[in-house]
Specification:
With about 210 residues, this protein is an all-alpha fold. The chain has 7 helices and no strands.
């Protein structure tokens, strides 16, 4: 009986050992794999980067100012050993130029102008006037003896542009125009109306006097 009990105990021990072995293998397969730890590199491999040295910028040098060249007078004084030019007394014959006294200006008076009488106060009757020349333009009134550029302009100012207007003047109208031109009686003496009629009828203008 004792031998049988020992055999049963050995058999149970073997079965228990096999069960432990199988359970250990099954549990190892189901356990997750452990992460592989990478060893840090040795301290000798790590190289620290140091900042590059900053070179200071060179300071600008102050500009060199060239001394102005001495004038001929300063050069002469330097040769004579005179340092202060103001210490040299002026010569007797050298005097400071004084500005000449202003000349007395005589007041200029404008030239007297001929006083013209207003048209309303002139003797006679003012002839009919035109606002502007008719036809191809104004006639050359200088064809008449006694009418120059100035008298022609003044006649145009009162509306006289054509020879036919002068040819139609009455004695009263001729007197008014003569007073307006400041030549009373000249129109009648030179017969401007007769000259204008002769030119309009095809006659030659009278010869102009040479001044």
């Amino acid at each position: 009986m004792t031998a049988f009990a020992i055999e049963v105990a050995l058999l149970l021990a073997v079965v228990f050992g096999l069960a432990l072995a199988v359970g250990y293998r099954i549990g190892r397969k189901q356990r997750p794999a452990e992460p592989v730890q990478v060893a840090p590199p040795p301290a000798s491999v790590i190289v620290e980067r140091q900042p590059a040295p900053v070179t200071p910028e060179p300071k600008p040098e102050p500009p060199i100012l060239a001394e102005p060249a001495p004038s001929p007078q300063q050069d002469l004084f330097a040769r004579l050993g005179i340092s202060d030019m103001n210490a040299v007394p002026p010569l007797d014959d050298e005097e400071e130029d004084e500005p000449p006294p202003p000349a007395a200006q005589s007041p200029t008076r404008p030239a007297p102008r001929a006083r013209r009488r207003p048209p309303e106060s002139l003797p006679g009757v003012r002839p009919p006037a035109l606002a502007a020349p008719e036809g191809k333009g104004a006639d050359d009134l200088k064809q008449l003896k006694g009418i120059g550029p100035q008298n022609e302009q003044r006649l145009n100012e009162i509306g006289i542009f054509h020879l036919r207007q002068i040819a139609a003047w009455t004695p009263e109208e001729a007197a008014w125009v003569g007073s307006y031109l400041a030549f009373p009686g000249r129109i009648e003496r030179e017969d401007w109306m007769g000259q204008a009629k002769a030119i309009l009828e095809g006659g030659a203008p009278p010869p102009r006097r040479r001044r």
